[in-house]
Design a protein that fits this description.
- With 438 residues, the chain is of the alpha/beta class.
- The protein folds into three domains: 2-147, Alpha-Beta Complex (Quinone Oxidoreductase, Chain A, domain 1), CATH 3.90.180.10; 152-287, NAD(P)-binding Rossmann-like Domain (Rossmann fold, 3-Layer(aba) Sandwich), CATH 3.40.50.720; 362-438, no CATH class.
- 36% of the residues lie in helices and 23% in strands.
- Strands 3, 5, 6, 11, 12, 19 and 20 form a seven-stranded mixed beta sheet that branches.
- Helix 4 (148-159) crosses helix 10 and helix 12 crosses helix 13 (363-378).
- The longest helix is centred in the C-terminal third of the chain and has 26 residues, at 386-411.
- It is globular, with a radius of gyration of 23 Å.
- The protein starts with a strand and ends with a helix.
- It binds nicotinamide-adenine-dinucleotide (NAD) and zinc ion (2 copies).
Length: 438
């Protein structure tokens, strides 16, 4: 099978590796979508030390059952499924208590460290124990399902300190995880959710997802604003989703006496703590790691629309573009949120791109246009009018994205998706939709 192999740090290549076979109790999954996680990026350059090459990374995935190991009765071939990123043993004291995220024998898919090596899902197939697999409802696309892991992380963090319905909460960091925590808080009926970030485009997304107030954390007055908005006493709960010294400090400074700080971010190995403040104000510090049993709820919340993940998907690209896509995430390209790689046939990308476009996140539309360009060329019988079509598309493109966007459009044509273009026009309700809807 084909797999995206990290053969050395910062070098990914498509390699032919043996297709794994499911052992008793395991399932062979044909991977349809697998998201690039921040931890994969920290593994890619070797900084985390948890992706020692050679390794196939990837743990945020979904697909269909392609093979069933002996003794597995709950699943059969072609079932649409996702799976936990944590492979837990199911038998240790923690697992028996339901704290599977703390399993003594915990392994994470796509991780190789000094303790273990476990192939991940940036490949056509992956093998996982059936106990970590969940069935997907039909209305949940594979690309959305690839974000379930992050949603489960957010639900777990929120579950650790329930907020009273009339309570308030602060989320520090409006990245992937922070925005999902915000939505998880809203889904848990928390009426007032403040979100702080230093990136204004992320704050825009926070507003879109229902933040009561989105605060620019680079403003020296932001802490005063938080306290003011809480009525002076401080927030009931602060959930930290960045993982730096200063943001942990903000979270602690923002909560009221007796309040709770949930620590989710962990990019820094250590931070300093205002010990006396924590003790005398009786602040509870609570770490939150991965998830423990939140997948079914996460599936329910996405399929009901209570939590939206489509706007967080910036791009869906074939596995073959893995190296290039990793480099772009690694380079912290602006407006990039989740990139989903597809080892199998291309997925329809339009829905996510439309959502991103509505939020005016600039790179996404260029891909729509790129696809359209390709589609126009490939449509049989269109050759004679291609120059006209190109001219029209170019004019539209230039108006929306400017000259550089137009250039991007020309180079970005990677896959044919005419329906995508039509869909985009219909959403935009442009009269041109009539012309193009042949
Ligand atoms: N505990 C867990 O189970 C778990 C799971 C996944 C991720 N994480 C951690 O959660 C954190 C966030 O992950 P992510 O994927 O959302 O990352 P991300 O890079 O998408 O988001 C981080 C956000 O923090 C913001 N930020 C940076 N400095 C800031 C500051 N000084 N003040 C306010 N905001 C600031 C950035 O602008 C960005 O929006 C990371 O530390 C990651 O390791 C933890
Ligand atoms: Zn992850
Ligand atoms: Zn266990």
């Amino acid at each position: 099978m084909k797999a995206l192999l990290l053969s050395k740090y910062r070098h990914l290549e498509i390699a032919d590796v043996p297709t794994p076979a499911p052992a008793p109790g395991e399932l062979l999954i044909r991977v349809a979508a697998c998201g690039i996680c921040g931890s994969d990026v920290h593994g890619y350059d070797g900084s985390s030390g948890r992706r020692i090459p050679p390794i196939v990374m990837g743990h945020e995935a979904a697909g269909t059952v392609a093979g069933v190991g002996a003794g597995v009765a709950e699943f059969s071939k072609d079932d649409r499924v996702t799976f936990d990123s944590t492979v837990y043993c199911g038998a240790c004291a923690f697992c028996l208590r339901g704290e599977v995220n703390l399993c003594d024998y915990r392994q994470v898919l796509g991780v190789s460290c000094s303790d273990y090596r476990r192939a991940g899902a940036f490949a056509e197939y992956v093998v996982v124990p059936a106990r970590i697999v969940y069935r997907l409802p039909d209305n949940l696309s594979f690309a959305e399902a690839a974000l379930l892991e992050a949603v489960a992380v957010a639900l777990h963090a929120v579950s650790l300190t329930p907020v009273a319905p009339d309570g308030n909460a602060l989320v520090v960091g409006a990245g992937m995880i922070g925005l999902l925590i915000l939505q998880a808080l809203r889904a848990a009926d928390c009426k007032r959710v403040l979100v702080a970030d230093i990136d204004k485009s992320r704050l825009k997304l926070a507003e879109y997802f229902g933040a009561t107030e989105a605060l620019w954390a680079a403003d020296p007055d932001s802490l005063d604003q938080i306290l003011q908005l809480s009525g002076g006493a401080g927030m009931d709960v602060a959930i930290e989703a960045v993982g730096k010294n200063e943001t942990v400090g903000v979270a602690i400074d923002s909560v009221r006496k007796g309040g709770s700080v949930i620590l989710v971010g962990n990019i820094s190995p250590e931070v300093t703590l205002p010990l006396q403040k924590i003790v005398t104000r009786q602040i509870r510090l609570q770490g939150s790691c991965a998830s423990a049993g939140e997948y079914p709820r996460a599936i329910e919340l996405i399929s009901s629309g209570a939590i939206q993940v489509k706007p967080l998907i910036t791009a869906i690209a074939p596995l073959g573009e893995g190296q290039q896509r990793f480099e772009r995430v690694y380079a912290r390209e602006p407006h990039l949120m989740k990139v989903v790689l597809t080892p199998g046939p291309a997925l329809r990308t339009m829905d996510s791109l439309i959502s991103a476009d509505r939020l005016r996140l600039s790179p996404a539309p260029a891909e729509v246009w790129g696809n359209t360009w390709h589609a126009l060329w490939r449509k049989p019988g269109l050759t004679w009018c291609s120059p006209v079509a190109i001219a029209i598309v170019y004019c539209l493109l230039k108006r929306r994205l400017g000259r550089s966007g137009a250039a991007q459009f020309l180079w970005n044509s990677t896959s044919a998706n005419l329906r995508a273009f039509r869909g985009w026009l219909q959403v935009r309700k442009r009269p041109l939709a009539i012309w193009i809807s042949w």
